[in-house]
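Form 7-S
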Amino acid sequence: MRWSRIRLIFGRELRDQLRDRRTLFMIFGLPVLLYPILGFTVKELTAAFEQKPRNVVVVGAEHLPEQPPLLQEDGAGGVGFAGELSAEFAPAPMFVRAASSEGPWGDPEQQLLAMRRGQVDVVVEIPGDVREQIEAVQRPTIKIAYLRSDEQSLATYRDVEEIIARWQDAIVSRRLAADEKPAEYVSPVEVEGVDLARQVTGSSASGASIWARIFPFLLVMMALTGAFYPAIDLCAGEKERGTMETLLISPAYRSEIVVGKFLTVMAASAATALLNLASMGLTMAVLGRQLAGSLGPGAEAGPGSPLDELSPPSLTALAWMVVLLIPLSGFFSAVCLALAVLARSMKEGQYYMTPLYLVTLPLIFLTLMPGVELNPFYSLVPVTGVSLLLKKLILEQYGEAQSYILPVLLSTTVYGLVALRWAVGQFRSEQVLFREAERFDLALWFRHLVRDRGPVPSGGQAMACFALIIALSWYTQILISGADPLAGLALGQLVFILMPPLAMALVFTSSPRRTLRLSWPGWLPLALGVGLAAALNPVSSELRPIVMELFPIPPAIERALEGLQEAIPDLATAVLLLAVIPAICEEVAFRGYILSGLETAASRWTAIVLSAFLFGFLHVLISLFQQFFNATLLGLVLGWMAVRTRSLLPGIAFHLTNNALAVLGPSLAAGWLYRDRELFLYRWPWVALGVVGSAAMLLVLSRVGSPEPESAPPAGAPTGRETLPSDADRR
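Output:
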């Protein structure tokens, strides 16, 4: 790539965006206008807001002792809670009504009916002998009836409960005074909570806690929104305006065009996110000052004041926010650019925003759930890792955050580069760039797939097969949840892993045998598959303690696995269910149909890596997350073996042997073989022998096998590798 031409394209696209009034308004105008308007609206609504009065009925009030009083006359002919009990407590007016226990208020059904009609929020039931029990130093039970589903009823219940607790303290104080006992007699220890942030720095960390919830969410959403609309305009918009062809016949490479557009979208995304956050921060600061001023002099500053509660994050956290925004904007810009190329018009491009939001929102909402903390797994999850890291930095927990900064930045950058590579592939496909608008007819489309089927599936059909496997696995697990676990295990493998690729190969390909690689490779590759699995087993086992330390298995899952092991009657059944059936079903699906389809849409190694990733991802969904790394690495070896030998059988032999060794491990836990019989870690001589043996067998396998030529795509299927005639030599 030539940076001079990238700079030229970037300048051209940036000028076009800055000339667009809609883009200028979305990036600069909307943040400046929106948040001040929202701030003033919140202020006015807060000033005009009045809490509804809370209605409390005290049934059996005549039985209450006179001292200390729980109820007293309010001066208007009614009653209310004693002033010393409710002072500076209830934020809304509370109307109390005394009722006799002999009347209708003693009936729970009448109480429920009154609450649902809004006539009362809480009913307090005083027992008839409450005075006698208190005098006899007994514990009478006072019932507080409320509706948990009603927010006002629940809030009133909490206030009344606190008032009665204060009344109880007053009773204890009278008893202590009568017995001439000090207050320390019943409260020997005083507990004082200390906010260290407020004690040391003079400012509460509650403001940072508020920003730690808001800023990561807004940063992600604004970065996504700021990237999507410019990407649509730069791709689908150029198609509509007819300027895409002019750009494509220029001397610039496709990759240079994509990078230039990518930098433009990334600049718009970062600017949108920063301006929105800055405008929101200033609005919240002004709103905090105004709210503090409305409380009177002396309330404008100090711990616990609105100004303190809305204090902005530190400069260090703000600087890290800018740093994290760069790879995050790059990731969203590349994804939006690749999706925008698929759209034929700006109207169609906007339809793609909904699924993109549906994928992004769970990743960001996950960070708002209690108990979700930054760990090695979440640091590698797109969007989630950035949000959790930013949350730690805003809370100034730098000690915990510093060990995850590099993994989060690297993983997000890698995801962005992969998405950018995808976008470049989209720009190199003529069928993607210039596909015409068509009316979709499901019956005609299905007949086309069957009539014009090729010898192997397309990349889209391979991904559709994987999606079908995932969907069937979910619904099958629901259907067989109450069945015999062993039958469910076998049925699940046969139904949701084996059946989809077999059915799709028979219906959508003209050569199921070639698609599923059902050919005899010879005895040597078959033996090498068995030997390679045995040699790699000691080596791959060394990953187990690392994964278990980083991602421990929850106790509930451990108990479920132990229950499944106890349900298996003998070793032969275990080998059949956990080795033979999974080896056949998973190899037919992933190294058969899916790998064959991916080879038509990407290079051979890209197809191998992607199929291995999908193989590992399936194990996360149907088994344990801890199996992802081992399954993905083994998937790379299995994919290479399938391509090299042109047969599925060596992979089945490898897979069967690997799983069988895992099943037979407990029965073979001899001291001469394992150095750790719980984690099944081999002794170091066996590990060294496994490294040497696996390297030798891989070398032999690379020489005895010969990969077939690159698969040709089915007729009419987009491959993602097509180029225009003028761009055939460009990379």
